[in-house]
Design brief:
Its EC number is 1.1.1.262. The chain is α/β, with parallel strands linked by helices. The protein is built from eleven helices and twelve strands. It has a twelve-stranded mixed β-sheet with strand order 3-4-2-1-5-12-11-6-7-10-8-9, with helices on both faces. Bound molecules: 1,4-dihydronicotinamide adenine dinucleotide and ligand LD2JLWAY.
């Protein structure tokens, strides 16, 4: 079900031991151009303690359902918090893998998904969760994306990382490198190309040019360095072209992002997680966003993780959260969804 554009956007607090509480408090205290009311699915005490630690004046008020936001003052410095899961211990340490924090992060995103599927919120923006903490809590999902897709009941989904210069769709997400190579299949290639085109349409690009990165050095160099590029990736590109998608490649993975950045392509399909994410993150985590393509609702995320090395110190940069929120608002406004 799609939500009205004025329905609130829910930000999930992510792992309470990470930088999620800090970047959310910083965002909530900063005037921003967006017009959509916000709520946080998370823990009020954790956010209050963080605001005090940062010396920021933030009024937190509890709600039980997004529609309770109607009529509330939601100007900067005020934030609605919707609880989920068990209340956190007040002495939960920052910067450590903790099963209680992993369970809480899962509870926050689960509750937000309930509201998104009901149409009570217009989008979910996620602060980072820690995959090891989630696993310590016995939760089997490797990340948000897989939770979201499972709850939405779809296999036709993908992870796209984007900034102002690059858009990158992954063929596989959270797999070991060995498994990722095995995941280079005709079906996954074609799906990633289609999803990349669909994501570009949501950006308003009518005829997107999709570059597909090769798997092997120099896209296999004519078979000298591996056969997957010619045997699997090239035929999938040909299929996509038969469907009318302007797909090309396989292009050598070491130069395709440079050419996309120069404006030769609208999106790049990357063969595995790090091939696609390194170029985006190298340009700076400040301006990156992670978008789940293929859901029945909008979901964006920061492109960085829980940053345990700085969590609780007051040194987290909230820029990617601002960017993810701006992107979610734009997607809701355009009605393009994912
Ligand atoms: N959207 C999500 O939920 C994501 C979650 N993760 C998870 O986060 C955990 C930690 O991942 P790492 O690989 O260590 O990456 P990370 O992004 O948490 O940290 C990498 C480096 O970047 C710095 N950094 C990251 N975000 C920052 C910010 N906003 N301001 C200032 N410095 C920042 C950190 O201090 C660290 O030095 C893992 O469990 C990972 O799976 C990673 C990426 C996205
Ligand atoms: N490297 C991106 C990442 O790990 C984010 O995953 P997800 O939690 O958004 O699925």
């Amino acid at each position: 079900m799609s939500a009205p554009t004025r329905a609130p956007i829910a930000i999930t607090m992510g792992d309470p031991a990470g930088i999620g509480p800090e970047i959310i408090v910083r965002l909530a205290c900063t005037p921003r151009p967006g017009e959509t009311p916000l709520l946080v699915v998370g823990d009020t005490q954790r956010l209050r303690d963080m605001a005090d630690h940062l010396g920021l004046a933030l009024t937190l008020f509890p709600i039980e359902h997004p529609n309770e936001l109607e009529g509330h003052d939601v100007t900067p410095g005020r934030l609605a918090v919707l609880p989920a899961g068990e209340p956190l211990p007040t002495d939960l340490p920052y910067g450590q893998v903790d099963a209680r924090a992993g369970a809480a992060a899962y509870a926050y995103v689960s509750r937000a998904i309930d509201f998104a599927l009901d149409g009570a919120i217009s989008a979910i923006v996620t602060a980072p969760l820690n995959k090891a903490a989630m696993a310590a809590a016995g939760i089997q999902y490797p990340g948000h994306t897989e939770i979201l897709a499972d709850r939405a009941g779809t296999d036709d989904f993908g992870m796209m990382l984007a900034n102002d210069e690059l858009r990158v769709m992954l063929v596989s997400i959270h797999l070991s490198l060995r498994q990722a190579i095995d995941a280079v299949t005709p079906e996954r290639e074609l799906r990633a190309i289609r999803l990349a085109a669909r994501a570009c349409h949501a950006y308003g690009i009518e005829h997107p040019r999709i570059a597909v990165a090769g798997l092997n050095p120099h896209a296999g160099e004519g078979g000298l360095f591996g056969g997957e590029d010619e045997a699997i990736i090239a035929p999938a590109i040909a299929r996509a072209r038969e469907e009318g998608i302007d797909a090309s490649g396989p292009w050598p993975g070491d130069t395709v992002f440079m050419n996309a950045r120069r404006g030769h392509f609208d999106a790049v399909v990357a063969q595995y997680h790090d091939q696609g994410l390194i170029p985006v993150k190298y340009l700076g985590v400040e301006n990156g966003v992670n978008i789940t393509v293929g859901l029945p609702f909008v979901r964006t995320s920061v492109d960085h993780g829980t940053a345990f090395d700085i969590a609780g110190t007051g040194h987290a940069d909230p820029s990617s959260l601002f960017y993810a929120l701006k992107q979610a608002e734009a997607m809701v406004r355009s009605g393009a969804g994912t």
